[in-house]
């Protein structure tokens, strides 16, 4: 275990001078790695692999019965209630993504741009905007269900006070408004996240281009649309992909606002709730097989579309620069 | 809600001045941006403030005056939540699980990140890829197998089971952040330590660890928040009420105390309090850590 042999074992013979980093011998490194590898292997890798096999078998309660190939996936699209609920829940997830992109990311970008040039209270605003993001999404969901309560809710009271009585609705009781409440509450909680990422990106930009454009007489708006925004393409790409992943996995806010069945009338149902119901509440004898198929399907969609998004943004970047 | 939607509207007016930036429009624009920033600050903070204020009021006050301030601030709601609704139990479980899993994952990730950063073997490179791939793994995919795994070793409904699971799922993020830091440290430090006769463990403990303290703080804060807030794992892995963490406790509590609104508000405040303390202690870490490794 003595160090000095490290250089000999490292594959850097081609270097002219000894490398700056002192390498650990592989044996020692493996010992250091062991505790993390054990934990990760047991509780992450092994469950990942078994989840895949779970989805390919039919189950009777907790006992694996027979190999059914893609049978469980076929069930999702042909047997009720899945044939109705899977497409509906998926559509709600997509709407949540679209809503987050429009509301949360554009408000986040706007606030980041405005905040970027400011010195006074900059940190204070960052802290205030980030507060909702730190609070548990479940707490946020329950908080808004209380604030929007038709019985005593301060939101409707406020709307009435300012003369908007027509807007004092039972927001969470109505199927058409309930999903929008989920979208807006999610966006409200998350604004701080794109704000900080865009803020960091703006801080790292080379501002000489904008200054040159300013000298050439470009207006603030022209400079934003034609210079700043294109320069932000990489970070907008990153934020979009992350927003997509979070939207697809949304669970605590829909759960707190609409319960595990996505009430009213399934209007706030999303994939994760459907998965939860199937796995732990359906009482179906093949609960494990069907729920694992939902999980795999969700994973494939998230993984596949994230990669597609990434590629698309990379290409957009290359076209720009 | 409605105010959230006004924010973009206010924005277009701030961007509107099409005249080149002159000194005269500067004042107007600065005032407009200030207004926008304060309006959104209100949108972000008022709901949270309402939560805190309403927890000090009584149900009658809430119904008769939904927008009022606490006339005679009362701690009755807290007493009810803390004692009768078992929040003291949930709180203690959350503390044990969060502190335990963050500590465990940080220690094993420090060792692993150091090994990965300072080894040049190809095997270690491949192992690092395996760890980092964990960043992409969705919880839904793993939860059913994890449940049966814990069941088979008798750890469903135990705090130890939750600690092990949370520690394991934290490893990808922690190894990623800590590895980035270890790589930035100059190797000469270890070479000097080695000449002085230090072995790998001593080198790690006495030389490297003090240097990565800022990264450790980032990792601790950044795993504490999501684990404290997490709801999905304990919802499924904990069946025994005396082992509920705060978020799972909240779900049953909301079913049982449906009309005792001020108690519900108090419960939400209790669930959030440790994060406020953490935030006050580590604002800088949180703000800079949120953007760590993503700002590029």
UniProtKB/TrEMBL annotation, chain A:
Keywords, ordered alphabetically: Cell membrane, Membrane, Transmembrane, Transmembrane helix, Transport
Gene Ontology cellular component annotations, sorted alphabetically: plasma membrane
Alphabetical GO biological process terms: transmembrane transport
A Pfam family reported for this protein in Swiss-Prot or TrEMBL: BPD_transp_1
Gene3D superfamilies linked: MetI-like
Record field: transmembrane: 29-54, 66-83, 95-115, 127-147, 178-203, 224-246, 287-309
Location in or out of the cell: Cell membrane
Record domain ABC transmembrane type-1: where: 90-309
Entry membrane topology: Multi-pass membrane protein
Alphabetical list of InterPro entries matching this protein: MetI-like (IPR000515), MetI-like_sf (IPR035906), UgpAE/MalFG_permease (IPR050809)
Top-level lineage group: Bacteria
Similarity remark: Belongs to the binding-protein-dependent transport system permease family.
Entry-linked PANTHER family: BLL4140 PROTEIN, DIACETYLCHITOBIOSE UPTAKE SYSTEM PERMEASE PROTEIN DASB
Name of the featured protein: Carbohydrate ABC transporter membrane protein 1 (CUT1 family)
From TrEMBL, chain B:
Region (Disordered): 1-26
Family the UniProt entry places it in: Belongs to the binding-protein-dependent transport system permease family.
Cellular component GO terms, alphabetical: plasma membrane
Sequence ranges assigned to domain ABC transmembrane type-1 in this UniProt record: 91-282
Record keywords: Cell membrane, Membrane, Transmembrane, Transmembrane helix, Transport
Record-level GO BP terms: transmembrane transport
PANTHER family according to UniProt: ABC TRANSPORTER PERMEASE PROTEIN MG189-RELATED, ABC TRANSPORTER PERMEASE PROTEIN MG189-RELATED-RELATED
Pfam family, one: BPD_transp_1
Localization of this protein: Cell membrane
Recorded topology in the membrane: Multi-pass membrane protein
Membrane-spanning segments: 37-56, 90-117, 129-150, 162-182, 203-225, 261-282
Name this protein carries in UniProt: Carbohydrate ABC transporter membrane protein 2 (CUT1 family)
Superkingdom of this protein's organism: Bacteria
InterPro entries (UniProt xref): MetI-like, MetI-like_sf
